[in-house]
Design a protein that fits this description.
Layout: H1 10-17, H2 23-35, H3 37-56, H4 64-77, H5 87-113, E1 115-119, E2 125-128, E3 134-137, E4 142-146, E5 154-159, E6 161-165, E7 174-178, E8 181-185, E9 189-194, E10 198-205, E11 207-212, E12 215-220, E13 223-228, E14 236-237, H6 245-248, E15 250-257, H7 258-269, E16 273-275, E17 284-290, H8 294-305, E18 307-312, E19 315-320
Parallel strand pairs: 5-7, 16-19
Antiparallel strand pairs: 1-4, 2-3, 3-6, 4-5, 6-9, 7-8, 8-11, 9-10, 10-13, 11-12, 13-14, 15-17, 18-19
Helix pairs in contact: 1-3, 2-3, 3-5, 4-5
Length: 321
């Protein structure tokens, strides 16, 4: 077993087992495990320890000062007579104590690494994190962080879409893991939208650093990046504010592809709006409306683009007339 090649240690392996690493760190650990069976066995051993801690965690209470005094007392018992010292017993007691401390440390680490999950379900959810940062989760999204968030790190994992208004702390960066990306706050507010294949990051204020497969991209206010599968990181201008719709109820389009607006309307109004022809998807639309009834919205869209719509079999179909 070799820890040196990848700067891997037990703490990193425990973080791997608890799902706290980002995509790049996970890949590093997996590569390290595959290079040597002994490495994989070490991970299995730590997994077993964590499982034991999980089953006994409510019964574990650790007073390290007390345990150290007991340890010293036991050592002294074997050291009373100069010729009666049993080094084997001393080493045995020491090994037992060290083993206890290791398990207790793992238990303490585990208890502080338990995951806290904020899930939105069918509702939009706003929350304040322990560091004072504020988030808004779109529907069917979730954010996960550990109990020791804001103690040693400020790392969260996102599934779905969320808006972040981060309280900046240069000594403890705020990092979001999403798909195979890492997004680091540099004093900012930003929106992240993700699914299995795509990730879109829009910066509203300040700056963020995006990392993927060793590449970095710095985004400033009103800039965005869209990543699909293995595509490189590319910066673009965020020309509209449509990403705000789920938290402000304002649909702000500026030469926005019609398909993007339709997706937002379907999400916001829980509807099944479709375009009759794929050729309509990329038609640009410039329009703003604020919390209007859906029929009013459809009338504005159709009047703006000279389209019509009909409702049939649970669908709303937009088409050219």
């Amino acid at each position: 077993m070799n820890y040196q090649d990848e700067n891997i240690n037990d703490e990193m392996l425990v973080s791997y087992l608890l799902g706290e690493l980002d995509a790049e760190q996970n890949a590093t650990v997996l590569s390290w495990m595959n290079t040597d069976k002994a490495n994989a066995k070490r991970v299995d051993d730590l997994r077993f320890i964590l499982q034991q801690v999980e089953s006994e965690k409510e019964n574990i209470t650790v007073d390290l000062d007390r345990e150290w005094k007991i340890f010293q007392r036991k050592i002294n018992q074997y050291s009373i007579g100069k010729f009666s010292v049993s080094y084997r017993k001393i080493f045995s007691v020491a090994a037992m104590f060290i083993g206890f401390i290791f398990i207790a440390s793992i238990a303490y680490y585990y208890s502080n690494s338990q995951k806290i999950k904020i899930a939105s379900g069918k509702q939009i959810v706003s929350a304040t994190l322990p560091d004072g940062s504020k988030i808004t989760l779109n529907k069917n999204s979730s954010l996960v962080y550990t109990k020791n968030f804001n103690r040693k790190n400020r790392r969260v994992t996102l599934h779905g879409e969320a808006f972040f208004n981060v309280r900046h702390n240069a000594s403890m960066p705020f990092k979001v893991s999403v798909n195979d990306l890492s997004v680091e706050d540099i004093g900012t507010s930003f929106n992240i939208k993700s699914d299995k294949e795509n990730t879109e990051i829009v910066v509203e204020s300040g700056k963020v650093k995006v990392e993927k497969d060793g590449s970095e991209l710095l985004l400033s206010a009103n800039e965005k990046t869209e990543i699909t599968n293995n595509a490189p990181l590319v910066k673009a201008i965020a020309s509209d504010k449509l990403y705000q719709y789920y938290r402000t109820k304002i649909f702000n389009c500026n030469s926005t592809p019609l398909k993007n607006l339709i997706d937002a309307l379907n999400d916001s109004y829980n509807q099944n709006i479709v375009l009759e022809n794929d050729s309509l998807e990329n038609i640009p639309i410039t329009v703003t409306f604020n919390n209007l009834p859906l029929d009013n919205v459809l009338e504005i869209v159709c009047r703006t683009l000279r389209l019509k719509y009909r409702k049939t079999q649970g669908k709303i179909i937009l088409y050219r007339h």
